[in-house]
Amino acid sequence: MNRFYLPVFFLFLIINFSSAQKNNAVIQSFLDKHRQELGLSTDDVNNWVVTDEYKSSKIGFEHVYIRQTYKDIEVYQAVANFNIKDAAVFSMGNRLEPNISARVNTLKPKINPIEAIAKAAIGLNLITKDFPVLLETKNSREFTYSVPDLSLENIPVKLMFQPMPEGELRLVWDMSIYQHDKKHWWSLRVDAQTGEILDKVDWVVECNFGKCNHN
Predict the structure, then answer these.
(1) How many beta carbons lie within 10 A of that of residue 174, not counting itself?
(2) By C-alpha distance, which of 100, 99, 126, 130 is closest to 188?
(3) What is the C-alpha separation between 188 and 194, in angstroms, rounded?
(4) Does residue 131 have a pLDDT over 50?
(5) Residue 26 has pLDDT above 60, yes or no
(6) Taking Cα atoms as reference points, which of 166, 156, 167 lies closest to residue 189?
(7) CA angle at 162 for the pair 160 and 164, rounded to the nearest 5°
(8) Which residues pair with 61 in a beta bridge?
(9) DSSP secondary structure string, the chain?
(10) Which of 10-19, 68-77, 193-202 has the lowest mean pLDDT?
(11) d(C-alpha 141, C-alpha 159), whole Å
(12) For the chain, N or C: smaller number of CB within 10 Å?
């Protein structure tokens, strides 16, 4: 049994890897061809990572989602999605950022991930006595910490760029903190130079339908 299923499993991996590589080439070719009408430079379209991809078996489309990077650092919400069929892009959704290289403020953080977590806690008016414990180092820009009295879930911390209203791309530590009262699960961008919270989104949705005249 194992002798049969193991080769099939590896064949499945090879086919999926080959399909992903083909889709990457299709996307790169499309971006190179259309970058000017998209208002993007060569650097803007040459640096990206795939964040998700799947295939719709009924209609035969492959859906690929990418995010821009600069010097291997991802740009928050700088994303695009592609619908691919027969090795060609059928449609594209575009939120890619233009002229990235001229807009970044720095490549080197002044505060480390532990300091960024502490700054985030202060900015959220949360009290913690636990020192962050490093659980995983994915690379030089991505880490996972445990701070039990601060967050119900482990805290992933990643170096990214945050687009600002005035046009600058600020180097930040991206992280999420799930409060113990479960009222807020914050997605945060903490300035990697100053520790200021530049952006936050609450993943917890609360609905209030007002008073009703029945139980």
Answers:
(1) 22
(2) 126
(3) 14
(4) yes
(5) yes
(6) 156
(7) 165
(8) 56
(9) -HHHHHHHHHHHHHHHHHHHHHHHHHHHHHHHHHTTTTT--HHHHH-EEEEEEEEETTTTEEEEEEEEEETTEEEEEEEEEEEEETTEEEEEEE-PPSSGGGTB--SS-SS-HHHHHHHHHHHTT----SPPEEEEEEETTEEEEE-TTT-SS-EEEEEEEEE-TTS-EEEEEEEEEE-TTSS-EEEEEEETTT--EEEEEE----------S--
(10) 10-19
(11) 5
(12) C
pTM of the model: 0.84
Q: Could you tell me the end-to-end alpha-carbon distance of the chain, in angstroms, rounded to an integer?
A: 58
- Average the pLDDT over 158-168 and give the result: 97
Tokens of 60: 């035969």
77, 101, 82, 78: which is closest to 93 by C-alpha?
82
Beta-bridge partners for 78: none
The dihedral through the CA atoms of 200, 76, 108, 132 has a sign that is: positive
- Select from 32, 27, 36, 155 the least CA-distant residue to 79: 27
Please, are residues 31 and 40 in contact by the beta-carbon 8 Å criterion? yes
